[in-house]
Amino acid sequence: MVMASDQPLQSVVRDEHLLLSPPHPSKVPMKLWDEQPPLTVVHYPQEYQAEAFAPPRGVYENDELRVEWQKMDGRQPFYHRNCDVDELSYQIAGERTLMTELGVVEHRPGEFSRIPRGVAHDNYGRAASHLLFYIPAPVAELVPAQRESQAVFPPFPGWQPAPANEAVSWNLGIPGRDITLFGIDEQQLLEHVHNDDRRLQVLRPDRSQDTTWLYGTDRVRIGLVNTVPGGERRYRRTLDADEIQYQANGHRTLITQHGVLDLKPGDFVRIPLGISYASVATEAGDYVSLLSRSEVPQVAKTSRTADQYSPERLAALTTEVHS
């Protein structure tokens, strides 16, 4: 596969055991199969656990994009305005009011939205968690919106205007890269919606499709992949992009040339460019997929690593699928 196409460049028949096993002995010096590091998983529980407000946790990051995980129960301590990136989010769990100069969105689990560069925003979460994607602007929506932000006053029950600050930041929203922090009139900021025809677009993937690509630039794609039990097992090798996957719902087994992983909701994994992989699901589920033309290293602590492939493990998976 290549990132910009939904059709394979070519499809070939493989011996699955040879695809996943160590190479045949060779007299030519090459990097040995067992020197390749196994895939790693980062996990954050989807079940809310109370704690004091904390900044988002960086998960993957390079010079072109940043992926974060955030949970919250209350307001964040300031409004935020990005200089260089569009800020995309995926709601994992709980309820979140997204307040911006372009209106208010009540986010529900499974929804995506994009805050354009230069638009101030704040969040009010209730036992909530969400993913954040910071991508150089402009990012385009690839599917029609399910709904739009609205002019809502008060933005949530019990809201009262209060002294607030605004942080302006650059460099992918990385903590500590703020340019300036200053006081604002919160009501004045939110009432900007009446003078601007733009609205945030709320996207929800089509459940009838295997893959729904939602956002794109010439270097990044973000979408949602549905997985169902059964069906032919097919391997995918992306030739021009790293892939980051976030398991949103359901359990599945990821089989790759860098190991085998049982994935559960809350798991992140990165599949490097050129590595062949397939999924085996015993229940319906879905995962968020991000494709990037540049390598996106993991910056979060590893929760666990992939198991080494074995014929017995593969046979057990086949038995589970057909049972």
UniProtKB/TrEMBL annotation:
InterPro entries: RmlC-like_jellyroll (IPR014710), RmlC_Cupin_sf (IPR011051). Gene3D superfamilies: Jelly Rolls (2.60.120.10). It comes from the Bacteria. This is Homogentisate 1,2-dioxygenase. It comes from Streptomyces liliifuscus.
